Amino acid sequence: MSDRPNKEQMMKIVVPALAISVALVIIGLLIGMQGDKDEPKAGPAKPNAPTNAGVSAPAGNDDGMVDSVPPADAPEWKDIGNGLKIWDVKEGDGEPCRPGADVTMHYAGWLLNGTLFDSSRAKLKPDRGQAFSASLAGGLIEGWMKGVPGMKPGGIRRLYIPFPMAYGENGRPGIPPRADLIFEVKLISAR
Length: 191
Description:
The protein is an alpha+beta fold. It contains two helices and seven strands; from the N terminus they run αβββββαββ. The chain has helices at 7-37, 142-147, and strands at residues 78-81, 84-90, 102-111, 116-119, 132-135, 156-161, 181-190. Strands 1, 2, 3, 4, 5, 6 and 7 form a seven-stranded antiparallel beta sheet that branches. β3 (102-111) and β4 (116-119) form a beta hairpin. The longest helix has 31 residues, at 7-37. The N and C termini lie far apart (81 Å). Mean pLDDT is 79; it is low at 27-61.
């Protein structure tokens, strides 16, 4: 008998190897395309010069929140200090949220280039779909602790957060260094 594999044995080896090779090529292409979407490499983002070249106006949905990044250069933004800007889309009802309050919210966060990096909304992140609860007294980025107070339950606010009030010089996984961010938040409750 020969030690040489027959045609059936060869197919059992070649087909899985070919499938793995194709999968690796596809993954490499997807990673390469994702890299093209990252922040421009020509220098750090400027916290007081938001731009959204090529980003279309956001689309809305059934909970009143948008599915894509709001335009960073819209006239509705109001600077509340140190480059932190707010845009109240919907006022809400009841007592305004106080600084340091415990809040429950839905949110979505984008890089200025339109890349969604996080969301509590199932429509945008299917593995989520749960509201986010936290204290505005600490543990959140400064832009949230200063930008959320004043909202009323049911209200929707957009936050333009310059990098020093976000993840700073170093960024974090999914957020490049010195990245200005845009969030849209919907306050569910505050106490």
